[in-house]
Amino acid sequence: MATPVFRPVADHALLVEFGTEIGDTAHEAVLSLDRALAAAPFPGFREAIPAYVNLLVDFDPQQADHAGAEAGLRRLLSARPPAPAPQSWQVACCYEAEFAPDLDALAAACGLSREAAIAAHLAAEYRVYMYGFAPGYAYLAGVPPALQQPRKPAPVRGLPAGSVMVAGPQCLVSTLVMPTGWWVIGRSPERILLNEADRPVLFAVGDRVRFRRIARAELERAP
Amino acid sequence: MKALLRASFAGPYVTVQDGGRPGRMRFGVPASGGMDRLALAAANLALGNPAGAPVVEISRGGLVLDCLEGALSLAVAGGGFILESRGEKLGAWRVLSLRAGERLAIRPGPWGSWCYLAFAGQLRAPVWLGSQATHALSGLGGGVIRSGQEIAVDDAEIRAELAGAIPCPVLARPRHRLRVVLGPQDRFFPAAALESFLTARYRLTESYDRMGVRLAGPSVTPEGALSIPSEAILRGSVQVAGDGVPTILLADHQTTGGYPKIATVVSADLDSLAQLRPRDGVGFEAVSPDRAVALARQRAAAERAYLAALARHTATATAGGKTLPR
Fold first, then answer.
1. What is the ipTM of this complex?
2. Whether pLDDT at A22 is above 90
3. How distant is the Cα of B97 from the closest Cα of chain A, in angstroms?
4. Which of A105, A167, B233, B284 is such that its CA lies 20 to 30 A from the CA of B212?
5. Residues B298-314: tens digit of each pLDDT
């Protein structure tokens, strides 16, 4: 594993940075350290937050300091904890116009027909890179290049939970009513945020996701 | 016995909070809990409750409660809030009782943004992921208290022996000079911007809620990339958006973001920061990571001493002034 850069954050965290550009190498290193840390935490370790290129490691300043945490983490860098096999998920998505306010505009911006844009979204396999922003917001990477557009210039308010949205290479299924500048292309009945203390979310980071097209009737039947 | 209260008026951002739900940021869930954790603990300990028991967090909007049924003791701590009860005006930081037919109003006073109302009994409120703390953005957890809403407290009791003032320590006062550790993206800011960030006087704006507070003052514009691959944000992160205006993230912060963070406020100063009000001035002082750890330990020792004295006082009063076994 490449030697990361350790950056102190306030009195209680270290940002362990494996690169500056989003890519699989940096992300694999993040997940590997995350697993090693879970298996062998240093004294005072509180929690770790994996992201695209770095792992934020939070510790209790009553029990540890930055130098101690860094030493504990350096010892884990050579560990190669076995990666669990990623689980595959099928997420239902209804692309009908009422639930897909930005689908036509996104297709047009990509020079695709509406059906071709849907087909492109359905053809891809997505990888769960991280959770972030709000509870249960799983960032799925893998939007095909033909469907990639930067986020819209201005956010739209009040998008319902379950909105399937894309921006650049990323896709996500929202869990809360939120403003967003992403392109909303469908609606999913899938519940990603669970009310279980030991398993609050459906996907594990590293899992794979594919979308399955459903008609309005199936969306409306969902509990 | 049950006590039933009605929030005859509740300002915005009045929510159920407790010690929070730490350890789940990897799922997009911030710890939440009290904006001023010391005051929350003080209110609970003054009644003999566990420090992180559920309470109602009151904003500067205030709260008016009518007791509909039963009777119970309450503790109010945090900020310089004003209480009105039985025709009397008192300062916050007090244990008092409320009986059916009586009213308690809690209003903002000379200082502070957040005040805590603890109950002698169990506050009935939904639990989400093991905690009753409300995540304001989603409303998950104990929930937002709205005007007209009823609040039930189970096993409510009067603890008359605890009535009286709760000492308000210097630790609980607002801080205008915030200690920060620079970074983790300070390298993206030109030297002049860092200099300006550390010497200028900023003000809190009205954009202040449980998620964070936007400041007003000189803009600090990063060089080059305005966005980085999304990464973790913490309570205390000072994030600089495209307009160069710093925002300090607080208890219900988003867990990740792609804007550079010029600095992070040390944990020792976060409760006191939360008691500032819009238009109050703040300045930033850079300290080394080691100094920040030392500050965290000093603050924790001072908090422990204060809270232990409070718990001793409560225990002694509960035992009827008899000497407690050591």
1. 0.95
2. no
3. 35
4. A167
5. 999 999 999 999 999 99
Cis-peptide, bond into residue B184, ω within 30° of zero: yes
pLDDT of residue B124 exceeding 90? yes
CA–chain centroid gap for A16, Å, is 18
In the structure encoding, which two tokens stand for residue A3, read together?
A: 């030697």
**Contact across the interface for B27 and A7, Cβ inside 8 Å:** no
Residues 6+ apart with CB under 8 A from B105: B62, B63, B64, B65, B83, B84, B85
| Alpha-carbon span A210 to A123, nearest angstrom | 8
Q: Residue B248's pLDDT band (boundaries 50, 70, 90)?
A: very high
> For residue B40, what pLDDT band results from cuts at 50, 70 and 90?
very high
In a domain, A187, yes or no: yes
User: What integer pLDDT is reported at residue B225 of this predicted model?
Assistant: 61
Q: Of A12, A51, A65, which has the smallest distance from its Cβ to B229's Cβ?
A: A51
Q: Please report whether residue A125 resides in a domain.
A: yes
Cβ neighbours of A155 (radius 10 Å): 12
Range of the domain at A115: 88-221
Those residues whose C-beta lies under 8 Å from the C-beta of residue B236, and which sit 6 or more positions away, are A10, B248, B249, B250, B264, B265, B266, B267, B270
Phi/psi for B44 (5° steps) reads -65, -50
Domains of chain B: 3-172 (no CATH), 177-287 (2.40.100.10)
Predicted confidence (pLDDT) per residue in B190-242, tens digit: 999 999 999 999 999 999 999 999 999 999 988 876 678 889 999 999 999 87
- Say yes or no for a CB contact (<8 Å) between B181 and A10: yes
Please check whether residues A67 and A166 belong to one and the same domain.
Answer: no
CB A207 within 8 A of CB A139: no
Buried-state track A176-212, b at ≥16 Cβ within 10 A, e below 16:
bebebebbbbbbbbbbbbeeeeeebbbbebbbebebe
Asked, for residue A82, whether it belongs to a domain, the answer is no
CATH number at residue A187: 2.40.100.10
